[in-house]
């Protein structure tokens, strides 16, 4: 049996008390930090001959996450991954984060400790240090702001704007799964709401979702595809342009092509889509190709490489060549299985929105 | 006459449209950024033989600021200063910030442009670059998350924990003014609320507050005391410990003494308190010494130095020796004008709270 769940009000221990409690959940997983939490700033070793990469993300309860179907530990974990992914997608290595929280009084100290357990697990898995942050009151829900620092040699950093014509477009894993995972969780939430079931009913829901475990995991506990990064490194392949698939394949490929002033052709039959994604798409009457194109939150790497690397890429089963960069920047097309070539610019989120 | 005020809904131009509009308000004021806004991360030059300092702060509407009596431009300006102050207080130089916003639909695109004008003015005045961030929806008001990066040689960084016994305690300017400024603004807000006056009545209030301009300015547009930093540098004085006065003299001196495992004695008659602070304290029936001890948001530098530097410090009118570090870490005392020595630990915020 579980011990009764303790819920300490944040006001009972105050801001500094809370920071102390949360600090205890955090360990250091690399030796690149001279001073962590506890002064006006953290102090970080400059890494010789490397540049600094920095990215910030803000996650708002009800907009980016929902505590009804996602545990605070998962929310903490995912918040970190989303940020690390931005550093990896520039071919750099993340090494520190700061995390700031704004918290309404519906959350207890123990709730935030759970969140930090998730943060710490991500830190451990990716060998980064949590070096600072801030905790504040909020009037509505939970807001998580994370900033990540990473390092890389100047010549190894990969930008969005480096794609070259005739480059192959490669993705490091399947697409659309996270989006379908979200649909499943939102459907179960609606059922919960309608029947006013207690949160414990989540156990039943877990059972109902057992055929879609992969989709749920892609949504609630995404990972960065480090094996893809290592494969490229081992084979001395430096992509010309790279991004992580957060907004969706189409949107993120547009970012690359807009910045590189080029166009693209995708091959529908090459899009990697998991069987569970196809099955769940049937349940929701969603076209699984549209889910792959627009779903987002896959956190796979999307990059363009020189055609000469084709044979090496084909050796790695998780890397999939899904299209080509073309000179005409106005063309953002897909060749369908039928052989028909269609413009994806006319098949955006709006269209997608209407199908579900 | 002013042109009619345009209010564009954020939803009209979307997230990317908004980012473009805000980006246009920002210029770069140093050449230490290789890539600013526009990729997954910003890329920043590592400065040779210097370490990196990082600090994050989260500011929540209704908790840290109030748009009733503070313009969005001032809120933007102050948000940046609060963060830069953390870097300067470790004797380092800030050079980049990221800024993330969560915004409820009561704010227009033009409102956020005003905020960014304030951010940009601070960036210009302190020669820093805004290199990234995020914009998101919020359910309640405005949330501003800023992360600042700074640089300094390892041996020049000053921590909280370096104070030594018999050090002199020095502050770079007067204390308590910002707190009284806040009381004045909150009083006028109450009047506004009671009479349901339109915002235009703020002009009348400005007139009423003309004797307290200094206090209002300390509250709504704080600055970092760069001349104090330059004076120390020119005279080759390296403080042993340093912090900025954000939580209040007593709380921040406690941070230094807790980290340094030492105590302090303050001299009441040496506390620098502006005449306007004294006058306004009378209006509010507040003890101005308590305002100086506990008010906070002064953003002056508070540091401890070796006694041998006393004569040099006395030469600079803005630097004030207000006490001494003592070996007994349990003693956090003040010698009153009467000669009586009292323990400040028993005269904290709670007591302060009861007087007003």
Helix content of chain A: 25-40%
The total domain count of chain A is: 2
Radius of gyration of chain A: 21 Å
Shape of chain A: globular
**What is the N-to-C order of secondary-structure elements of chain A (H for helix, E for strand)?**
HEEEHEHEEEHHHHEHEHHEHEEEH
Number of strands of chain A: 13
Q: What is the CATH C level class of the largest domain in chain A, in words?
A: Alpha Beta
Low-confidence stretches of chain A: 348-356
Tell me the structural class of chain A: alpha+beta
| Portion in strands of chain A | 15-25%
Q: Report the CATH architecture of the largest domain in chain A.
A: Alpha-Beta Complex
Q: What distance lies between the first and last C-alpha atoms of chain A, to the nearest angstrom?
A: 42 Å
Q: Assembly state here?
A: homodimer
CATH superfamily of the largest domain in chain A: PurM-like C-terminal domain
Largest interface: A-B, 65 and 65 residues
The CATH topology assignment of the largest domain in chain A is: Phosphoribosyl-aminoimidazole Synthetase, Chain A, domain 2
Quote the average pLDDT of chain A: 91
Order of strands across the main sheet of chain A: 8-10-7-11-9-12-13
